[in-house]
Amino acid sequence: MDFGCRVGHYSIPAAFAVGHSGTVYAMDQDQRPLDELMEKARACGLENIKTIKTSGRPDLDMESRSIDVVLLYDVLHYFVQSQRQALLREVFRVLRPTGLLSVYPKHTLEDWPSKELKDLHVSDVVREICACGFRADGSYDGVISHDDALISGRVMNFRKAMDHPWRGANMFLLDRLKGHKSVGSTESEGLGPVLETVEQFKDRTFKVRARGIRASHVPVEEVRRFLQEELPGYYTYTAKTLVYKDRRQVRQARVEIKGWIGLSRRMNRYNPLDFTCTVCTESPASA
Ligand SMILES: C[S@@+](CC[C@H](N)C(=O)[O-])C[C@H]1O[C@@H](n2cnc3c(N)ncnc32)[C@H](O)[C@@H]1O
């Protein structure tokens, strides 16, 4: 999604990058540049761009967690702080859990100060973005093609910080996934029973362990969301569930997920990308 796309300086290359199987949503409040963008797209033989004329308000008419990448290039300076916050929250909402926000902040104090960013440094903009639930994830400093010219600039990338109770375990897994999204083989072996088991313990909280990272008091909805949304499609894994009674005769569950990423499907101790995530219920007394 290219928000504030104008005539598509970035939407068009993005459409080439995502190819036939992807879609670029090119959004702008002005219809004229959108028409020009579509003319260019047709001339390039591109059929994977959808233009959307927005209301001018900082909201996005898109489903939650449906977008892989959002570009905010040379557009934030149009919004006052409260609108920037609203827009960034909307971006957070529509991005998938593993999605990427890429920002090219122009017109800050470092670069032709103007409009609503004229009194802000780039670092202030970064702080605002992180205050809306993102964490910085690398940047590009160098030559940028912008407005039909080559200039030097900085594009910064962000990921969702996932501020929930088991952030540690979650980030651990996401970090392991970086750059490995294209691994084709995915086994969902065991996920059905795992979800059913989690469902049976609705009123209880969970402990999560992933390679030494522990998180307690994780609500069952978070466990289910994680399993459903973040495991499938990214790596190969198997899962086991065990329901048993503890010494106090309280029913407990243990869910173990083992997964690996790589060209080889074999998991072994030499593969740095393998992981084990164990999820256990907490008895009501200890919760
Ligand atoms: C400076 S241009 C940048 C275009 C493109 N992102 C680029 O970097 O080449 C900013 C664009 O943002 C659009 N824009 C400004 N305020 C907007 C708003 N509130 N909602 C949607 N688009 C907006 C403008 O119409 C303009 O096309």
Secondary-structure blueprint:
Layout: E1 2-3, H1 11-18, E2 24-28, H2 31-43, E3 49-53, E4 67-73, H3 81-94, E5 95-104, H4 122-131, E6 134-146, E7 149-160, H5 167-177, H6 191-200, E8 205-210, E9 213-219, H7 220-230, E10 236-245, E11 251-260, E12 275-281
Parallel strand pairs: 1-2, 2-3, 4-5
Antiparallel strand pairs: 5-7, 6-7, 8-9, 8-12, 10-11, 11-12
The structure holds S-adenosylmethionine.
S-adenosylmethionine binds next to loops.
The top level CATH class name of the largest domain = Alpha Beta
Record the strand order, biggest sheet: 9-8-12-11-10
CATH architecture of the largest domain: 3-Layer(aba) Sandwich
Largest sheet: 5 strands, antiparallel
**What is the CATH topology classification name of the largest domain?**
Rossmann fold
Q: Tell me the number of helical segments per DSSP (H or I, 4 or more residues long).
A: 7
Counting helices, strands and paired strands, the structural category is alpha/beta
Provide an overview of this structure.
The chain has 287 residues and is of the alpha/beta class. It has 2 domains: 159 residues, Rossmann fold; 115 residues, no CATH class. 27% of the residues lie in helices and 33% in strands. The protein contains 7 helices and 12 strands. The strands form 3 sheets. A 5-stranded antiparallel beta sheet has the order 9-8-12-11-10. Strand 1, helix 1 and strand 2 form a beta-alpha-beta unit. Helix 6 runs antiparallel to helix 7. The radius of gyration is 22 Å and the shape is elongated. It starts with a strand and ends in a 6-residue tail after the last strand. 30% of the residues are buried. About 7% of the residues have low confidence.
